[in-house]
Amino acid sequence: xxxxxxxxxxxxxxxxxxxxxxxxxxxxxxxxxxxxxxxxxxxxxxxxxxxxxxxxxxxxxxxxxxxxxxxxxxxxxxxxxxxxxxxxxxxxxxxxxxxxxxxxxxxxxxxxxxxxxxxxxxxxxxxxxxxxxxxxxxxxxxxxxxxxxxxxxxxxxxxxxxxxxxxxxxxxxxxxxxxxxxxxxxxxxxxxxxxxxxxxxxxxxxxxxxxxxxxxxxxxxxxxxxxxxxxxxxxxxxxxxxxxxxxxxxxxxxxxxxxxxxxxxxxxxxxxxxxxxxxxxxxxxxxxxxxxxxxxxxxxxxxxxxxxxxxxxxxxxxxxxxxxxxxxxxxxxxxxxxxxxxxxxxxxxxxxxxxxxxxxxxxxxxxxxxxxxxxxxxxxxxxxxxxxxxxxxxxxx
Length: 397
Hints:
four-stranded antiparallel sheet, 13% helix, mainly beta, Neuraminidase
């Protein structure tokens, strides 16, 4: 009896396991469109794991028609590129060393000397590289450090002092192609004498990696705009936003057809300090603006543009400089306090004080000292979020 009972139990377990194996997988009944819609809502790292579930899932995730719908990057700010005698990188991810070669050693030897990082946008770097044979000749390079791929961009024309500002536009969730914006400025002279010109924007050359041509458009802003060259630009929904010195933000689209002016935010309770610059960034998919608030300069204010088609700002957060660094803004001035980023996915701001990079969590009020960058560091910091997916930057051109 004992042996018979054991045999029956064993047979019952085998039948139950067989029924479970034969039970149809409910995911198999989903159409490709529904499955892609589900996968579009998972984080990037989870999407990578999903590609190992089956050949069907792998093929759907890899299909070019689905790339725009699926997550294209890890949702973590890795750190900042900056210059201090040489090109440097500071890690802010709190997860160890960055997963990319920030020295860009994968570039051919001929590309590395004289390479300067101009801008970064959603995982890509825009660089220029002067040629030793002729210091007036340079190339643009667009580089993906995460995949170690890069592409040379033909320059719009021979180097000119009128070309002072170039910016990169790239939205992997919308298109796998990037745009380079090269602003033409009203400069004359040899680089040392600009007595009769103020450097306002005359027009823009725009390069599209899709058709690989430059287009020229005359400036369409209603006033003369002088760009704040060292401050970050933002690219979202096909529009590039740049900070100008006239307490305004200029916007231009990838076709050079739409030109807009957005004034710095101001309200009855808060006003920006006339001597303070404004800083823009993209956080939670919306344009954010940070500046010194109150005419006495006692706090940092962060605003958000809830509707990209509007010019109405909403005050998101304020914090006193006494809370941040124990001193008033007016005590140490513009060059010792620089906002460098608003986190793309968190309510967090990054700033430099006394050459030290810090972060401020708006939700918890916690301040974190990250790293002293040294006395030789400059004032141009480029935030970097790794992009591990395939883009049009597929190798040297």
